[in-house]
Automatic annotation (TrEMBL):
Ranges of residues in domain IclR-ED: 69-255
Name the record gives this protein: IclR family transcriptional regulator
Annotated keywords: DNA-binding, Transcription, Transcription regulation
SMART domains on file: HTH_ICLR (SM00346)
Length: 259
């Protein structure tokens, strides 16, 4: 069946493709102009996509961005092996090099889903096992991904306090958007995500995003270690090893170097 017989399907896919390739949410007028579509058609299709969760509407900004259902499609693709197969030997090499446990996680709605877990020799078992999901804002992997997203996209994911789910008492107190924004700003400035005790008391994690060809974060690589085993002065050195691994994986999936 040719495109001419299914114009709505073609237009819907073009809208999703445009939103996926954009650095952030777009106004409907811009979507209509870039795709040379009538505004009425664009509004109708956006409303349908919003109903099914593939598009999020940001009413204060009068913009539209990818919704949780679209994000979950990305996670589903990642679970079907490409990232895991490419990343597994790299994470294993990282663990051998730094002597700390490492993992690869992908975004899954407001969570991260762990697809690789490599434990260092003698290291304690971690909660971040394969197929475990954890709230993004609590983990170094999640913060690394969120810090690499446009602010408007992060705001769409966390529109209110109800969006912040906690496993236990979070020592870093990320229970509202303003606090999350401050943590993500620190992450950008530092150059890597840092989590201390928010997932498991006494453990610390460093995370760096893995980016695709558009510079969009599709995953994150992180290492986890006892908080008292690595002095603060050594954290940047450890982070540089994680960054090197993330850059290699980004290159292997035809992505742009992370950083």
């Amino acid at each position: 069946m040719g495109d001419a017989k299914v114009p709505a399907a073609d237009q819907t896919l073009r809208i999703l493709t445009l939103l996926a390739r954009s650095r952030g949410p777009l106004p409907a007028s811009i979507i209509a102009a870039r795709l040379a579509l009538p505004r009425s058609t664009v509004y109708h299709l956006l409303a349908t996509l919003q109903t099914h969760g593939y598009v999020m509407h940001l009413p204060e900004e009068r913009r539209y961005g990818l919704g949780l259902s679209a994000v979950e499609l990305n996670s589903a693709y990642a679970r079907q092996e490409p990232l895991a197969r490419l990343g597994r030997p790299l994470v294993a090499q990282l663990v051998d090099a730094v002597g700390q446990s490492g993992h690869l996680a992908v975004p899954h709605g407001r969570d991260v889903l762990y697809v690789i877990e490599e434990r260092a020799v003698g290291a304690p078992p971690l909660i971040t096992d394969v197929d475990v999901r954890l709230p993004m804002q609590l983990t170094a992997s999640g913060r690394a991904i969120l810090a690499a997203l446009p602010k408007a996209q992060v705001r769409a994911l966390f529109p209110d306090r109800e969006a912040f789910v906690h496993r236990h008492e979070d020592p870093e107190g990320i229970d509202r958007y303003s606090r999350l924004r401050a943590v993500l700003d620190d992450t950008r400035t530092r150059g890597f995500a840092l989590e201390r005790g928010s997932v498991t008391a006494g453990l610390c994690s460093i995370g760096v995003p893995v980016r695709d060809h558009r510079g969009w974060p599709v995953a994150a690589i992180a290492v986890t270690f006892p908080e008292d085993s690595v002095p603060d002065a050594r954290l940047p050195e450890l982070a540089s090893e994680v960054l090197r691994t993330a850059e290699t994986l980004s290159h292997r999936i035809h992505g742009r170097a992370a950083g």
